[in-house]
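Checklist before submission:
- one chain only
- standard amino acids only
- sequence pasted in full

Submission:
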Amino acid sequence: MASLEEIRSARLQKLEILKSKGINPYPTKVPRDSDIAVVKGDFARYESEGAPVSLAGRVMTIRGQGAILFAVISDGTERIQAIIKKDTLSEDDFSLFVDTVDMGDFISVTGVPVTSKTGEQSVMATTWIMASKSLLPLPEKWAGLQDIEERFRKRYLDLLMNPDLHDLFEKKSRFWDVTRTFMKERGFLEVETPTLETTTGGAEATPFKTHHNDYDLDVYLRISVGELWQKRLMAAGFSKTFEIGRVYRNEGTSPDHAQEFTNMEFYWSFADYTDGMKLVRDMYIAIARDVFGVTKFTSRGHTFDLADEWGTIDYAEEIKNQTGVDIHNATESEIINKLEELSVKYDGKNRERLMDTLWKYCRKNISGPVFLINHPILVSPLAKSNPDNFSVQRFQPIIAGSEVGNGFSELNDPVDQRERFEIQQKLLSSGVDEAMMADWEFVEMLEHGMPPTCGFGFGERLFAILADKPLRELQLFPLMRPR
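Returned file contents:
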């Protein structure tokens, strides 16, 4: 088998053959009348008319020998077979094809649509043109890109050689299209809010930090899709807003976590968390049906049907049912002992993080679909309190053992919000990097008045679970360490 360098050297020689004949191997434009998918979609008409058509694409396979070759070309919409026959091309054109064309090259083929003897829709070439000469080969087959790191580094080859993966990214685009349409049809206004912030808000996560040279100011990449900004819009008189955008969190990587991803958040004035739960269930069902064509899924060892009735589970009761720990009364030491008994890793010893870690252990056992409700105030610094003054009006959809969204009856009491920010400030000062930064200008906005509001956000994790893939697999170009 030839080495990569030997293959490259042979292709460079073919490049020189093209140049020696006055042919530009990288022309600006080549003949192309249509997408291949258009021709194949109405092939009987094209064939009956018998008129030549020009198609262009990458050569995916070449077979045959002697006076006839068969080259399958792909333009990203479809594939079609080009028949390269000695008695339908000029002698020079046929010889040049044999001498210079390899798998991986982009070519333009002009010819008459015909059905081959084996019944394959084809183009009988009368002329061809090199559109882009490749110097390195394509993987011989999918097994040639089994190494995960190599697949992510050469994502263009990964996508080219794996049609199922290509289809998934088309579904992902559809996923956000359906979401956007769903929100707009219900009267929500799409907005854009800052991605650079002086104070991050809307989530508990470690931000990425950068510097604004003109202002000589440290700023952060946002960790939510403008939660505190969209709430300002509620105070400004907008009734329903949403945004789909990128967020950035300087945290670990897992099947459910990435440092850069897309989220959607909506805010709905004069609605509460019960209204939000109804809307979210309808939205998730619409996404499942429109993108995947089904509502029943098997993912990560769980089976669930989004069209089922969605029950609710109580945060404290579920932890007690699964672990025996009463988080209302348990001490930090008792929670730590339980985590160690369950062999669950935990980070830090503050009560908020310990409760959250214990809940995440329990969450993995829930198939859903259900809404988790009645979270403790300590883990929900932006949600309105329940009358018990221990829990909040928060809801999280749970499917396949994962949280796939987060919503609240938003806290609009400025005094309460100030006190909760002060608690978060103490946590930050004590070294809890993921505690929420205080935004005192946001508190000032609340003092001017914000209507009762429901807010909710979800992201790519939902798509990953419905597709039953790790989140990293569903990013076109995952972040990689430089070689």
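Reviewer check: The longest strand covers residues 53-65.
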